[in-house]
Specification:
This protein is mostly helical. The protein has one domain. It is built from four helices and no strands. The longest helix is centred in the last third of the chain and has 41 residues, at 92-132. The protein is elongated. The termini are far apart.
Length: 143
């Protein structure tokens, strides 16, 4: 297993190197991106057949899957550019930005999903409380 060196991550010369060498760390990032791609395809097919999800949850998960697919394919293309030695398209900062965008997308997706679940639970509880006390509320008098 190759050792990842994070000491150069804040060095601008390291990040903006126009023609970095292809290393073992890039193959590890490629494996991570392929796992994200397979996860994205799996989620897409599970959502198509999901009967237990509400419409809003399906929309949130589909939007995450679309954005994640675009970002993952962008990362794979950047790794291809790096393996072919394209100058300026193989900079480390572009790959780092793609990976950070995937992580940010995943965190926003989780926050949206949790918030939507909490709102649905609160609405269900308020509907139960109204029906539970309906017997004790004053009735309309007939004239």
């Amino acid at each position: 297993m190759p050792q990842v060196n994070f000491s150069n991550i804040f060095n601008p010369g390291y990040l903006f190197d126009p023609a970095p060498a292809f290393s073992q760390n890039v193959s590890m990032v490629f494996n991570v991106l392929v796992v994200f791609l397979l996860l994205n395809i799996l989620v897409y097919f599970l959502i198509k057949r999901a009967k237990f999800l509400a419409g809003v949850q399906k929309v949130i998960i589909r939007s995450w899957a679309r954005i994640n697919l675009i970002l993952t394919l962008t990362g794979i293309v950047l790794i291809f550019f790096r393996s072919q030695g394209f100058r300026f398209l193989s900079m480390r900062v572009l790959l780092l930005a793609a990976l950070l965008a995937i992580v940010i997308n995943l965190s926003f997706w989780l926050v949206k999903l949790v918030r939507k679940k909490v709102v649905q639970n609160v609405q269900a509880d308020s509907a139960e409380s109204v029906s539970k006390y309906q017997d004790y509320l004053p009735k309309k008098r007939k004239k």
